[in-house]
Amino acid sequence: MRLALRFALSASVFLIILLLIVKIKLEDIWDQYGVSTYIAHSWKTTLQHGPVHDIPTFGGEVSDKVVIMAKTEKENTDWVAEYLPDWQAAIYTVNPSPNTTDTILTTPMNKGRESMAYLSYVIDNYANLPSTLVFLHSHRSGFFSAWHTDTPLHDNVGALRSLQIPFVQRNGYVNLRCNWNPGCLEAHRHNAHVTPEVWKDVFTSTSTEQEAQQHAEDEQTPTQVGAACCAQFAVSKDQVLARPLSDYVRFREWIVDTEKSDAKSGRVLEFLWHVIFGKDAV
After folding, report:
1. How far apart are CA 151 and CA 142, in angstroms?
2. How far is residue 180 from each of residues 10, 28, 246, measured CA to CA in Å?
3. CA triplet 160, 164, 166: central angle to 5 degrees?
4. What are the pLDDT digits (tens) for 246-279?
5. Distance of alpha carbon 37 from its chain centroid, rounded?
6. How far apart are CA 104 and CA 93, in angstroms?
7. The predicted structure's pLDDT at residue 260
8. CA distance 184 to 224
9. Is residue 276 a contact partner of residue 194, using CB atoms and an 8 Å limit?
């Protein structure tokens, strides 16, 4: 009897702990994905306004702003021209086939996730940039694919329609995700992707290294690095030009030369865009 009771108590404690772990994890996912907001606006859109794709387009000519994105050859990005006709578009194919036409923008190699396309645009257009640059993922929307897009239905069209261009110009850099989870919570700032060694490797021979040399050695590499995921942001032309062209060339060379994989090298840059464009590490 005592053995059975001990077993029952042990099993109960184990189950309670397991349920607590699951609860914490589900709450974290619920927060990251904005589940309650997504559900509420999905019902509201469906019942009151019809399907989400019925968004009116803007008239007028293309203005002094550009959307930059990376895509695979199979991905469809026609939504950019259809729903954002007032934006220039620089859409890079990262895995072009041999019969890809010269009119399609391509990256030097398929590595670093979206960062290879982002840097390639800056390097290729450094002398002729528009006033506002938005770096965006190729998917328009979707609960699972675009969960990190901070609009009620995770819709990048809505994100750009609501973007406050004057604020981008004043601030220089604006992360399009306001939710700090994941990437910028206190628990995330001792960054496993951007270690002091990686920081030094990325910023070697750049203006960041030159500025750091004016300070004490222990101030050259931050102990914490935090940024809301997931590499979707807006930058002003002036903020891009605050760095010399050689810096961006060096960052792209780091992606090419590093032994880190496509995903891991891209993740490093994901946590450094805000630093590259003039913000503190946290």
Report:
1. 11
2. 37, 12, 31
3. 135
4. 999 999 999 999 999 999 999 999 999 999 999 9
5. 21
6. 7
7. 97
8. 10
9. no
**What is this structure's pTM?**
0.80
Q: SS3 of 195, please?
A: coil
DSSP E strand boundaries for the chain: 65-71, 88-93, 105-106, 132-135, 173-175, 233-236
Instruction: Tell me the per-residue pLDDT of 102-111, one tens digit each, with 9 for 90 and over.
Output: 678 999 999 9
Instruction: Check if the beta carbon of residue 84 is closer than 8 Å to that of residue 157.
Output: yes
Residue type, 14: F
CB atoms within 10 A of CB 237: 18
User: What's the token pair of residue 28?
Assistant: 């974290």
pLDDT at 282: 78
Q: Which of 104, 139, 138, 133 is nearest to 121 (CA)?
A: 133
What is the dihedral angle through the alpha carbons of 280, 136, 256, 192, rounded to the nearest 10 degrees?
50
To the nearest 10 degrees (0 to 180), the angle between helices 245-257 and 115-125 is: 150
pLDDT at res. 176: 92
